[in-house]
Design a protein that fits this description.
The protein is an alpha+beta fold. It has 5 helices and 6 strands, in the order αβββααβββαα. Strands 1-2-3-4-5-6 form a 6-stranded antiparallel β-sheet. Helix 2 (58-70) crosses helix 4. The chain is globular.
């Protein structure tokens, strides 16, 4: 994977860990967590790239993200409604082989890329922490998946 577009926001971006996400018998995506020099520090900047193994509608990706974010503490229904609209405006439909990359920036915002091209930014306070918490937070619904992404790094 070429990291040139990621390295603009995550200097020296290298893989920390990777994992395949599957539901029942369906492989959904391959994920790679990237951090400066491949060292996880839990603070931005870092990036998470998802290479999809199936076709998905961008609105479905946004809805699934909200469902997962709802599991986390400290998030309100109003925030989730606003974030759903923001994500629907940023997340494109994806085809098998497409990659969506989210970058958690030091200023607390998130930047998204579709196949290396800028898809949009979400600057709403609190969004990035909850969004990346889907995979990396203590309240993730997939702790084994998180452990593979973190590749044994301490949180």
């Amino acid at each position: 994977m070429s990291n040139a577009f990621i390295s603009q926001d995550v200097p020296g971006a290298k893989a920390v860990g990777s994992a395949r996400f599957s539901v029942l018998f369906w492989d959904v995506y391959d994920a790679v967590l990237l951090a400066p020099d491949g060292k996880w520090a839990s603070q931005p900047p870092y990036a998470l790239s998802l290479t999809y193994l199936r076709d998905f509608d961008g609105k479905d990706i946004a809805a699934r993200s909200v469902k997962e974010m709802r599991r986390q503490s400290g998030v309100t229904s109003t925030q989730l409604e606003n974030w759903l609209k923001l994500m629907e405006g940023v997340f494109p439909n994806v085809k098998r082989g497409d990659t969506l990359t989210g970058v958690y920036l030091p200023n607390g915002s998130a930047r998204f890329f579709h196949n290396g091209q800028l898809a949009g930014d979400v600057t709403d306070t609190g969004f990035a922490n909850h969004f990346f918490g889907i995979w990396l937070g203590d309240q993730t619904s997939e702790p084994e998946f998180r452990d593979k992404l973190l590749a044994g790094a301490t949180r």
